[in-house]
Write a structure and sequence with these properties.
There is one protein chain. This protein has 364 residues and is α/β, with parallel strands linked by helices. It is built from 13 helices and 14 strands. It has 2 domains: 4-138, Rossmann fold; 150-361, Rossmann fold, CATH 3.40.50.180. Helices cover 37% and strands 21% of the residues. Helix 1 (13-23) links the parallel strand 1 (4-9) and strand 2. It is elongated and about 60 Å long.
Length: 364
């Protein structure tokens, strides 16, 4: 494998040194330069021709968003954002992902970074190794993705399902924030309820839910414990808890549990999918872009119990890890381009709503 050349951009020399030290442990990664602000970075990119950048979201002279927008317009390339664990940092990072940043890594305080250096190193190396493989066509997203879909003709129509408790469960990781936005923007406000496990830090999940709520016809929430699941609503797992679905007295409810990580993640897609096994015949499970294999094994279990399972296809996935693993073990019923998944979900809900009455009767 050829060496991956990285340029580190951060106004803190301590953070730059931590990043450089972490990446020095990877035999196939070389830090070819560092910059304390985007002005210096701009010249180093021309001189050093790096394969990938790590970019702080908040810097002097030119903020990270302005720099990233210019970069994606003039010279698209993989960028990993280093994001502070604050509401402001989350909002800026979500904007960066809209502009075409591949991924982000949460940047705790210097003291926390020094204490958790090994974990930070492992995650950073994984993200850079994956990001450099992404096809350049995926860097720059269409401008219409940042517009509210109710203002366009992209929103699909749906005659609301008459059967109760039909539910859609979605898992996603790297690239998932934008993939979820595109999928949800096409769904009308009376769609079947959706529960989501997106790999995201605790401090980001609420900002992410609020942003989707502003952009999508359905009502989007950060899930809360005991919250009733309703048609036309989306429930996103908090960034530090597993989300499960409980079936009680003929209704579905969100359950949040603080148990250990699964597949190195909390929330984990496997945990969400497994909680739906007892009503699998009334479930559509979807795996979108992401690193690793979280969700694949549980998707297979759902399929075997009668759920309809969909994976995002390789051509439209930023990282074909999670959906690719599910595909490899034949956990999917369908592999679809991202742009086709929303319509497929609605078409299935309409066509099968009468046939599911008998299935649901056993749980009521």
């Amino acid at each position: 494998m050829s060496t991956i050349k990285v340029l580190v951009i951060d106004d803190s020399s301590v953070i730059r040194n931590i990043v450089k030290d972490a990446l020095s442990q990877a035999p196939n990664i070389e830090v070819v330069g560092e910059a304390e602000d985007p002005i210096v970075a701009r010249e180093l990119i021309k001189k050093l021709h790096p394969d990938i950048l790590t970019l702080d979201v908040e810097m002097p002279k030119m903020d990270g968003i302005t720099f990233l927008a210019n970069l994606m317009r003039l010279r698209p390339m993989p960028v990993i954002m280093l994001s502070t664990l604050t509401t402001k940092g989350a909002d800026i990072t979500l904007q960066a992902l809209e502009l075409g940043a591949i991924d982000f890594i949460a940047k705790p305080s210097v003291q926390e970074l020094l204490a958790t250096k090994d974990s930070f190193k492992e995650v950073l190396i994984d993200k850079i190794s994956q990001a450099v493989l992404v096809d350049q066509k995926n860097f720059k997203l269409s401008d219409n993705l940042t517009k509210k879909s109710t203002e366009s003709s992209n929103v699909l129509s749906f005659e609301g399902a008459s059967r109760s408790n039909h539910i859609v469960a979605i898992g996603a990781s790297t690239g998932g924030t934008e993939a979820l936005k595109k999928l949800l923007q096409n769904l009308p406000d009376n769609s079947p309820p959706i529960v989501i496990a997106q790999h995201i830090p605790k401090s980001f999940s609420l900002s992410f839910a609020k942003r989707l709520d502003e952009l999508c016809p359905m009502q989007v929430h950060e899930a809360s414990h005991g919250q009733k699941i309703k048609q036309g609503h989306v429930y996103i797992a908090p960034g530090d808890l597993h989300l499960q679905v409980a079936h009680k007295n003929g209704a579905l409810f969100c359950t949040l549990v603080d148990t250990p990580e699964v597949n190195r993640h909390k929330p984990a897609v496997d945990v969400l999918f497994d909680s739906l096994l007892n009503i699998a015949g009334n479930v559509q499970a979807v795996l979108l872009t992401g690193m690793g294999q979280d969700g694949a094994a549980a998707m297979l279990r759902l399929k075997q119990k009668g759920a309809r399972t969909i994976v995002q296809d390789k051509n439209t996935s930023l990282i074909w890890g999670m959906p690719g693993k599910a595909h490899a073990i034949d956990a999917h019923c369908l592999a679809l381009p991202l742009t086709d998944i929303s319509k497929s979900i609605l078409d299935y809900a309409v066509l099968n709503r009468e046939g599911m009455k008998e299935v649901l009767h056993g749980y009521q």
